[in-house]
Amino acid sequence: xxxxxxxxxxxxxxxxxxxxxxxxxxxxxxxxxxxxxxxxxxxxxxxxxxxxxxxxxxxxxxxxxxxxxxxxxxxxxxxxxxxxxxxxxxxxxxxxxxxxxxxxxxxxxxxxxxxxxxxxxxxxxxxxxxxxxxxxxxxxxxxxxxxxxxxxxxxxxxxxxxxxxxxxxxxxxxxxxxxxxxxxxxxxxxxxxxxxxxxxxxxxxxxxxxxxxxxxxxxxxxxxxxxxxxxxxxxxxxxxxxxxxxxxxxxxxxxxxxxxxxxxxxxxxxxxxxxxxxxxxxxxxxxxxxxxxxxxxxxxxxxxxxxxxxxxxxxxxxxxxxxxxxxxxxxxxxxxxxxxxxxxxxxxxxxxxxxxxxxxxxxxxxxxxxxxxxxxxxxxxxxxxxxxxxxxxxxxxxxxxxxxxxxxxxxxxxxxxxxxxxxxxxxxxxxxxxxxxxxxxxxxxxxxxxxxxxxxxxxxxxxxxxxxxxxxxxxxxxxxxxxxxxxxxxxxxxxxxxxxxxxxxxxxxxxxxxxxxxxxxxxxxxxxxxxxxxxxxxxxxxxxxxxxxxxxxxxxxxxxxxxxxxxxxxxxxxxxxxxxxxxxxx
Length: 586
Description:
The chain has helices at about 5-10, 50-60, 80-85, 125-130, 145-155, 155-165, 195-205, 220-235, 260-270, 325-330, 335-340, 370, 405-415; strands spanning about 105-110, 135-145, 170-180, 185-190, 245-250, 275, 345, 360, 380, 395-400, 420-425, 425-435, 450-455, 460-470, 485-490, 505-515, 520-530, 535-540, 545, 560, 575-580, 580-585. Helix 8 (about 220-235) runs parallel beside helix 9 (about 260-270). The two termini are about 15 Å apart. The protein has 13 helices and 22 strands. Strand 3 (about 170-180) and strand 4 form a beta hairpin. InterPro entries: PHP_domain, Pol/His_phosphatase_N, Pol/histidinol_Pase-like, TAT_signal. This is Histidinol-phosphatase. GO terms for molecular function: 5'-3' DNA exonuclease activity; 5'-3' RNA exonuclease activity.
């Protein structure tokens, strides 16, 4: 992509990012449908646009940043960005104010119950444990299957509704784990309401991989996955449900989520397909055999198969500090999406099926094939040291910046990318902002997931306020944050090859060593004078296990270390990651 279209786009494009800064406020005309800027709303013909919007649309088209190929680009598709909540720069008016003006709600979007063929717990079992371990929201995601499609998706709903009544302080969503045609699994969930079961059931029976013809070609299955995402979007548009979200689960586990599929999912509808697990569940699976299962952390113990994308390296089939290779590699696949300007977020969760050190088992006399569920679990008196999962909230958290304690607010926060994740309660709280250099007003700055647009040549900086941990986690020790890394990448726009999975301009630009004993730290990193679009993201670690990243020490000198199969104590290797903030010249 040439420089000139970028410069023209950046001069003319404006969202409501970064107000309070010293810049002009030349807002484009907004269409009536969906709050889309008129220049990006292709339902409005050129003849009905103002002269400035006609000019703006021309620049966007010329740069290849308008229309089907531009979905989810923060560069020049604010329609997609707006749908993803990218245009919100400041903290909310009202609502919670836990940190940075947002109410940060911890959750888990990947949890199984007795309605999954390989799990055993009641909905209430999972929910009560998750709530006790500090979760504010969770999603029940039983496996897509013949039994679930025909029986379970309806049968679980009364249990979910009873749980909502029983636990008023917990937001309990209904979803399912989708067998993505031609690919791995994904969380799909919808806003609660009278049509939640009907929409999920129709989706599963029509688009789940288990329900499609075995004779389908790979191309047919990939097309079915796209159609499934578009179906969810159509149900929101038709007001059958208030919202629907898709997050790809354990994306690198078997190597079958190819880069072009991930891009195509996002581009199918960026208001539905919003991200993937930055770290998988099953974090107890690597505990050494004397105390645990002695397997691979996250169950990442695979090798390439005929179905795997051939370009992925062998290292991608293992976790790195508990995180998926796609997220853990600086300059890798996640960064290649962010460098395009694609809004694509990371999460963590438990993927809880059967939990480490629990003492229950499936109820006797169960007939899953006939009933679509196992009988209620019973006490066994035997401690499950070989189970690979933790209870929801026990180890991993997806922390969402919400405007209130409400289902819609959680979904909006996820869609907007106002998310940071951690393992083992490494930190208590975090607020990250990109600001015009020196601006410390509380009402300014662009938070996680946002797009800061400032005049070319303006000096910007990243500010981090981190509340350090001062209470024990659920392994009975107080985690200590040792280092925080700032990662910056150039935004280069759409790629020619959709199977690209490298971002060579992304690297760690600054590392902060954190002194022991403080209760909180405020960190500031100068991002320099803006001359080209970029994004910034942050991670932190207890510093126990590090190694140079796969792209080399010059890119990532102290990254997460490759996890060892059979010897991966999850409590001895803790990290947090944030989602990105983009900074664009205008």
